[in-house]
Amino acid sequence: MIEQRGTPAPLRWLLVANTHPGLAQIFAGSHWAAQSAAPASWIEVLRRIPGACPVAFHRFAGYGCRATKLPLDHLLAELSGTSPKPMRRSTPAERPAGGRQ
After folding, report:
1. pLDDT tens digits, one per residue of 36-53
2. Cα(32)–Cα(3) distance, integer angstroms
3. Rounded distance, CA 13 to CA 53, Å?
4. CA distances for 89 relative to 13, 32, 54, 95, angstroms
5. What was the pLDDT predicted at 101?
6. Which pLDDT band holds residue 6 (cuts at 50, 70, 90)?
7. Going by C-beta distance under 8 Å and a sequence separation of 6 or more, which residues neighbour residue 24?
């Protein structure tokens, strides 16, 4: 979890690896498993979450890879039904240049 300071209330983010041996083992044999040369299924689903965005590089227990960043506070509030306003999907203008990471 990463916190972004400098906002009225710190934003907390959950980073999920786009590829990782541990996730590959967990999802092996399921429809979430990555196919050879195709991106892992969980990346597509996570990036549909409003506010989600790609991360160019992050280390997970020494394993460096691309990741997907999720707005944890907003996501938990939405799931619990306590969100003051519905989360919105990010627009193409708000996403990093260069397409997917």
Report:
1. 666 777 888 888 888 899
2. 28
3. 10
4. 16, 22, 14, 10
5. 42
6. low
7. 33, 34, 40
Q: What is the dihedral of CA 43, 44, 47, 50, to 10 degrees?
A: -140
Q: Residue 5: is it exposed, middle or buried by C-beta count within 10 angstroms (0-12/13-18/19+)?
A: exposed
Six token digits for residue 9: 């209330």
What does pTM read for this prediction?
A: 0.64
Distance of CA 56 to the CA centre of its chain: 12
CA 92, distance to chain mean position in Å, is: 16
Q: How far apart are CA 23 and CA 37, in angstroms?
A: 16
Distance CA 101, CA 53 (A): 9
